């Protein structure tokens, strides 16, 4: 239960830090400490000092979608590795072979991807 | 009010607000971000039910991978914010389907006899690992076949030009 308490503190910090980053400058403006003199240069989108071209709602390359799908499948695989790893010794050889078959079957998919040149960026 | 109940109320309100935002947002990218809020709040409910593995899966798979896939699909197919295209003539049908699902859920809650109080039994990683890889080894292996089919399907659908 104490672990969940730590998780709660972490969640509170994760909300507080970005919220304070937005709130503190706003409150300083309200208090009159920070001057408020906007101009077109200050309000411009900051992109590493480069001039921005076009809108941000552009269409991405379709190939990214395939990588996202692969990422989804391998992240599901990784999730199963965790409960397996914490019980690795107690599961003995049966657990080892069970996971080897599991990873092996998914690896067939990876090999298929590779053979189909799906992993290459063209 | 116990602290757990207070956290439950906060998390539930966030989940429902996220769900409402998903439906009501006029911009699909914002809608998917509301969906992310809803999914992460559901992960909080899993934590309250002492299921850390399910919470981890919810955050990693749904909050991480699924939302990335959804956002990618939106960024790949949409040009600009076409808010007008969200209005569909199928809206009445969608309302019927939504109300039917709501009716089934309410009926499930009303018809079933719920135990007055449940002591949530913590299901940790160790306990899960002990049963998943022994008693439930066969369904676990079948899951890998399902993932394989999904992976090959992704290639066939996403890269038709390379399948000679």
Observed structural traits:
heterodimer; A: 122 residues; mainly alpha; 2 domains; 67% helix; flat; B: Four Helix Bundle (Hemerythrin (Met), subunit A); 6 helices; globular
Mean pLDDT figure of chain B:
84
Please bin the fraction of helical residues of chain A.
Answer: 55-70%
Strand content of chain B: under 5%
Termini distance of chain B? 64 Å
In sequence order, what are the helices and strands of chain A, one letter per element?
Answer: HHH
Low-confidence stretches of chain B: none
Shape of chain B: globular
How many strands in all of chain A?
A: 0
Integer average pLDDT of chain A? 83
Sheet with the most strands, sense and barrel status of chain B:
none
What are the secondary-structure elements of chain B, in order, as H or E?
HHHHHH
Put simply, the count of helices of chain B is 6
Describe this structure in words.
With 122 residues, chain A is an all-alpha fold. Chain A has two domains: 58 residues, no CATH class; 63 residues, Methane Monooxygenase Hydroxylase, Chain G, domain 1 (Up-down Bundle). In chain A, 67% of the residues lie in helices and 0% in strands. In chain A, helix 2 runs antiparallel to helix 3. The longest helix of chain A has 30 residues. Chain A is flat, with a radius of gyration of 25 Å. The termini of chain A are far apart. The relative contact order of chain A is 0.05. The mean pLDDT of chain A is 83. The longest helix of chain B has 26 residues. Chain B has a domain of 99 residues: Four Helix Bundle (Hemerythrin (Met), subunit A), CATH 1.20.120. Chain B contains six helices and no strands. Chain B is mainly alpha-helical and 164 residues long. The model of chain B has no long low-confidence stretch (mean pLDDT 84). The termini of chain B are far apart. At the A-B interface, helix 1, helix 2 and helix 3 of A face helix 3, helix 5 and helix 6 of B.
């Amino acid at each position: 239960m104490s672990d969940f308490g730590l998780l709660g503190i972490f969640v509170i910090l994760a909300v507080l830090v970005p919220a304070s980053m937005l709130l503190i400058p706003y409150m300083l403006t309200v208090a009159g400490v920070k001057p408020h003199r906007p101009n077109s240069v200050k309000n411009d989108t900051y992109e590493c000092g480069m001039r921005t071209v076009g809108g941000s709602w552009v269409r991405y390359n379709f190939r990214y979608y395939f990588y996202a799908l692969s990422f989804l499948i391998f992240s599901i695989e990784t999730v199963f590795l965790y409960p397996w790893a914490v019980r690795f010794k107690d599961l003995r050889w049966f657990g080892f072979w069970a996971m080897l078959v599991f990873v092996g079957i998914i690896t067939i998919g990876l090999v298929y991807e590779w053979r189909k040149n799906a992993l290459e960026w063209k | 009010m116990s602290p757990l109940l207070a956290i439950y109320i906060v998390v539930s309100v966030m989940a429902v607000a996220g769900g409402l935002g998903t439906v009501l947002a006029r911009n699909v990218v914002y809608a998917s971000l509301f969906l992310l809020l809803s999914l992460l709040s559901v992960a909080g409910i899993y934590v309250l039910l002492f299921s850390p593995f399910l919470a981890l899966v919810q955050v990693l798979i749904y909050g991480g991978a699924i939302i990335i896939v959804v956002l990618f699909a939106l960024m790949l197919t949409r040009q600009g914010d076409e808010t007008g295209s969200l209005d569909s003539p199928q809206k009445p049908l969608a309302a019927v389907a939504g109300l039917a699902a709501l009716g089934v859920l309410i009926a499930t809650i009303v018809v079933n006899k719920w135990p007055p109080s449940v002591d949530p039994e913590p299901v940790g990683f160790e306990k899960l690992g002990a049963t998943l890889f022994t008693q439930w080894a066969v369904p676990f292996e079948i899951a890998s076949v399902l993932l394989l089919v999904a992976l090959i399907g992704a290639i066939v659908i996403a890269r038709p030009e390379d399948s000679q």
